[in-house]
Structure prediction request, 216 residues.
Amino acid sequence: MPVRIAIAEDKFFLAQSLKEKLSFFKDFDLRLTAENGQVLIEKLQEQPNIDLILMDIEMPVLNGIEATAQVKEQFPHIKVIMLTVFDDDIHVFKAIQAGADGYLLKETPPEALKSGIEETLAGGAAMNPAIAMRTLKLLRNPDAVSHLEQQEQIALSQREIEVLEQLAKGLSYTKISENLVVSPSTVRKHIENIYKKLQVHNKLEAVKKARKNNLI
Prediction:
């Protein structure tokens, strides 16, 4: 029987890339796709006969880590591989906490993706070498895990990090909006959210605290 697969990815072109990779293998049957975690859960409730999910992390409405936790609670038979551009300690740690069965980067080539899926379904854990090393270091160092949990309390979205990195370079709101191709009002809103999450009142405090917690 073909492996029944679901994809959760909010970016259309990345979802299409994944579909193309899966199409190389006749043993894989793509049953459903979802643009965020909430849509994924709703579709799984209607069609729970899925073997494995390729899960993005940064998605609107319900992100991949939260969605993974819900999948594991509601559909424990389904394996989940986080397929993402992130390979930092916080995301790896959170994915493991949520119950992810594997963690691969989106740049993983088709054959490696195929091997990772098969390994995971066989009871293993698909993980590229760099991420496996990070995981081992986290497991061996309880203090590092404790520090990551403190960091998670002030974790920023990828876009907020991009805005903060631009701020740290001393760029104006207008220049940031040009660089990130968003409106100045959107930049201001992101900065308001950054200040709220970091519990700071100005740019200097925000940059200092973000650097202290390895957010930028």
Observations:
- The first strand starts at residue 3 and ends at 8.
- The beta strands are 3-8, 28-34, 52-55, 79-84, 102-105.
- DSSP finds eleven helices and five strands in the chain.
